[in-house]
Write a structure and sequence with these properties.
With 224 residues, the protein is mainly α. 75% of the residues lie in helices and 0% in strands. It contains eleven helices and no strands. The structure holds magnesium ion.
């Protein structure tokens, strides 16, 4: 609507002034410069991805740590499950922008609370991991819904049971603040578990169909 208005105005200027060709050029140059400045302010997704990864490492959480939780969650349903499949699934979840954004926000708040740099009463709420605070779970839960019901139920389970590295993060004796990070790890592990459960089912079904087709082809060949 705004562009149509500007073009209409330019058209009128062209009608009433022989200099309007120059004015039009100036206006378009101005608009183009504005777009260019806006694009320059955008953060490249590679930068976001690398920063999120770096934050996890700095806070003592590796992909392997999270993959071990995924293995614990999914191996009872898939006895042949390999650790590499869990690692691959965690890596895929970490490619998602909304997960990366959640990591950046959550870890930043943890670090600021650790340094005593938040204003009160938020400083005390985050630093003490206040039981009724809830924003840590809400931030992490927000990125779980995209992976379906298995992710949601696994998140709830991990949040209660504090499996693997989550238990270490939940221990307050270290002097570190992991109020947000423990929930973020629950979220990444839950998403990776759900993603893998669906993928493994797809692979099983594809294999079953392939074997059925091969058996039918063999029968047809023998009959022929
Ligand atoms: Mg928490």
């Amino acid at each position: 609507m705004a562009v149509a208005g500007i073009l209409g105005m330019l058209r009128k200027l062209l009608e009433i002034s022989p200099r309007c060709g120059t004015i039009e050029a100036h206006v378009f140059t101005y608009l183009w410069k504005g777009m260019y400045q806006t694009m320059k302010k955008q953060v490249h997704s590679r930068e976001v991805k690398n920063a999120a990864r770096q934050r996890l490492i700095e806070r003592g959480v590796s992909v392997q740590d999270i993959a071990e939780i995924v293995y614990l969650m999914q191996s009872p349903y898939h006895p042949d499950l390999q650790m590499q499949q869990c690692i691959d699934s965690v890596e895929a979840v970490l490619e998602k922008r909304e997960i990366q954004h959640a990591i950046l926000v959550g870890v930043e708040l943890d670090v600021l609370a650790e340094k005593g740099l938040l204003s009160e009463p938020l400083q005390s709420l985050v630093a003490s991991d206040e039981g009724l605070f809830g924003c840590d779970e809400t931030l992490a839960l927000g990125s779980v819904f995209g992976y379906g019901s298995i992710a949601v139920t696994t998140f709830g389970h991990l949040d209660k049971q504090k499996v693997g590295v989550i238990k270490r993060l939940d221990t307050k004796s270290s002097g570190k603040v992991h109020t947000f990070l423990d929930d973020l790890v629950c979220s990444i592990a839950a998403n990776a578990s759900s993603r893998m459960a669906h993928r493994l089912r797809d692979e099983e079904e594809a294999l079953a169909e392939h074997m059925k087709q091969a058996a039918e082809d063999d029968s047809a060949e023998q009959a022929g």
